[in-house]
Amino acid sequence: MIPEFAGTAESVSRDEGLYRPHPGDVFKRRCLSKSRLKQPEIAALMGISPKHLSRFINGHVSVQIELARKLESVTNISAAAWLNYQNAYDLYKTSSSKPAKQLIYG
């Protein structure tokens, strides 16, 4: 039997204005800090240049599908998660520039 409250779940979302780190920060804290490999070695494993990896870590490169797949291959964190980190960061960065809400219906 399904509990009564199970069918009445409310949608819960986090305010876009709350701080979200750049995926490069996530990579630095969750992956790079735990690895004994140097950045050039990690870049070689990923098939990217050390400069590109450095630019990603420092927040100058956004995660696109290709980079997300490469990150997945060396971190065991899904490409979808990396893309989600990027989307959350992008929404956070643009949260103050939202236009006034005016619905097109109802």
TrEMBL record:
Keyword Secreted belongs to the record: no
Composition bias, Basic and acidic residues: 12-22
HTH cro/C1-type domain: residues covered: 37-82
UniProt-annotated stretches for the region Disordered: 1-22
Keywords from the UniProt entry: DNA-binding
Keyword Transcription regulation in record: no
Signal peptide segment: none
Entry GO MF terms: DNA binding
Name by which UniProt lists this protein: Addiction module antidote protein, HigA family
Organism of provenance: Marisediminitalea aggregata
